Amino acid sequence: MITSATTDRRSSRNIANSILGQGTGLVSLQNSGSYSDTDPTFYVRGLQSLSTSTPLVLVDGIERSISDITPGEVESVQILKDAAAVALYGYKAANGAILVTTKRGKYNTKTVKFSYDHEWQFMVKKPQFVDAATYAEAVNEARSNDGLSAKYTTDEINAFRSGQYPYLYPNVDWVNETFRNHGVANKYNLEFSGGGKAFRYFTYINLTTNKGFVANADANSGYSTQDKYTKGSIRVNLDADITRTTKMKVNLQGVLDETSGPSADLWDLVYSVPAAAFPIKTESGLWGGTSTWSGTLNPVAQSAGAAYVKNHSRSLTSDITLSQDLSGLLKGLKASVRVGYDNSSNVYEDHSKTYDYGSLTPGQWVDGEPTVSAEYKVTAASEMGTSAETNAYAARFHFDAGLNYANTFGNHSVYSQLKWDYEYEDETGLNTTVYRQNVSWYTHYGYKGRYFADLALVGSSSSRLAPGTKWSFSPTVSAAWVISKENFMAKAKWLNLLKLRASFGIINADTCPATTSGRITRSSM
Prior knowledge:
The longest helix is centred in the first third of the chain and has 14 residues, at 132-145. The protein is built from 8 helices and 24 strands. The model is unreliable at 514-525 (pLDDT under 50). By secondary structure, it is mainly β.
């Protein structure tokens, strides 16, 4: 289990980045260097499916985005991998599960905390590309290998190398011309937590801002094309003891975030355009571009002359749980019911524009000097766009109810749970509405705190599956032995925990390769 004592030490954008490299069995892949896209990809049971291998993420027991959770909100993160652990979550947990538990207030306390982080971010390892002269020599070599004549003469290669004629024979370092060396981020966190005799609260407010690595972001009057990210979020967790045996729990979270920046993928352009393609701008101030290498591939022009696009994302998550102690009927018996509703959407604004571009076409060399044979120009300038649309939305309704029993009889401990849960989700697109439900019975037995056995019997249904196959049955068993608690290990003071665990079961999924519909696996573990 990963606890807040570990995650709070890292100044990460969200809890997903904070748990990188932590958690037994958790494989993490960082996807991007852009601050708004730094969400990692997680694998718990490896790459095992043709459709998706990412694990189910549950925040306080309900499937939610891990990217919206800041580290300061989190009490613990648990990784579930084996069959017995994930069976209770039905079809969606075939690839494992990540359980995120948020913080809650404590009785008879009052705490106020504020923190501020200022970050300087640097490109530690920039890609290095060959200069124009080396590129020209490589092109000539490639053509020679194919039996073709050289494209560049010795004079032209020397002109690339010397930089004497930058508008005819450019030598552009696209990485350093497009990107600056540093970015800046600021994080403000405010926490209120505490409670009285029968009420507890935890409120966490976060504001995060970031300005990225675009070098020419302020070349225009009235707007910036910087790669920017701003997020504001608030979490409110409430616990109320309605009576001595009846308790209520409420979880609320709201998130607003905004990203803006160039509409083009600048790194893709940097990797596409050679140093010899065209100058950044011509001598007359026109953005560079040729008939071979279009000016739309000019990374600096796309970062400074094509304006920007913006995304506004907003989400609201909510759930309420009522639990009733039924020890008056049977000691250790409890009942609970939970209702949750989440929704999110994204508004896309297109403020991009197009621009004119061109270049001078080199002619023959006369007396050791190049001549201009023609001037190439494309007239494509337009006004900034003003369109805006809601291009993504999602909604999820969750309901579950159950009975659980927990008791200890001498050296024996027993926990048993009977539960039914139902979920409805809908998102952008056609035929994207899905209904799922699970009926589960889970029993745990322990002896002397050393030997454990688990049994889970789960029936799952999904509207994605065809009639006659909507329901599946997932039986799982597991056993564990805590070796470190044995008497023969008493002298091993250097060892805190040594546990041997094995599980076997059948886990089902309701996704098919490339179609996200139908049934894909019925595997043993």
